[in-house]
Amino acid sequence: MDRQTISRLAHAHHPVAAPLSDGSVAELLERALAPEEEGRALDLGCGQGVWLLRALAARPRWRAVGVDLDTAALTWARESAEALGVQRRIGLHHLDAREFTDREPFELVLNVGATHAFGGLLPTLDAARRHLAPGGRVLVGEAFWEREPSSAALAGLGAAREEYANLATTVDRVVADGWTPVYGRVSSQQEWDDYEFSWTGSLAQWALDHPEHPDAADARAAADLHRAEWLHGYRGTLGFVVLVLRRD
């Protein structure tokens, strides 16, 4: 079973692919979209387009563009846009986010949990800068170390110690790059636990509901492995922060 399929099944009951509650998502979007009544939003790595769809639902005069390489996720986004009646206000592109160009800038650029597509946080912000209208905002979500990672945490994440920094250093790097945080949200332990239990539970439930499917065993194995890596490895070690940024 390929990674993209596993991710879609795992996020069936938690479509925001990050450890954030619906309330946190709504508050972050409110801060990122305000005060403009109309504008354009760009999500560089939109997945199923959840952030953009919620933005369009909250702002009936905004338009949006999403870019991703996951064809099935984009199909889901298009179907959801039609169901919400916002399909005329959103454009979805099957494209590497690094290759996307547009003739007009955007009032809001998003990348939540997909900075790996650009090679890290600062390269992601550099890409966002190229698309941002004067006075616009960037909504970016990135992991950080809540505490020094153990070997079990690093193994469970398949990460290197240098891949992330602590929260203070993460924010300092953003500020040194010429950005000003105007809002931020750190995921709580409850949000992390809800997210991880939903991720592993949704995938395991699919395997139980489809025992004859050729991928059922792989799905169950992936759920069991992920759960063990989280509970015995990185729980309480990996943090997640979403920042609303403006240029100096």
Summarize the structure.
The protein is 45% helix and 23% strand.
The biggest beta sheet, please?
A: 7 strands, mixed
Order of helices and strands: HHEHEHEEHEHHEHHE
Question: Percent range for helical residues?
Answer: 40-55%
Reported CATH architecture: 3-Layer(aba) Sandwich
Domain count: the total is 1
State mean pLDDT (0 to 100 scale).
96
Q: Shape, please?
A: globular
The value of Rg in angstroms is 18 Å
Structural class: alpha/beta
Strand content: 15-25%
CATH topology: Rossmann fold
Under CATH at level 1, the class stands as Alpha Beta
Helical stretch tally: 9
Low-confidence stretches: none
The H-level CATH homologous superfamily, spelled out, is Vaccinia Virus protein VP39
GO biological process, one term: methylation
Keywords: Methyltransferase, Transferase
Domain Methyltransferase: 42-136
Protein name: Class I SAM-dependent methyltransferase
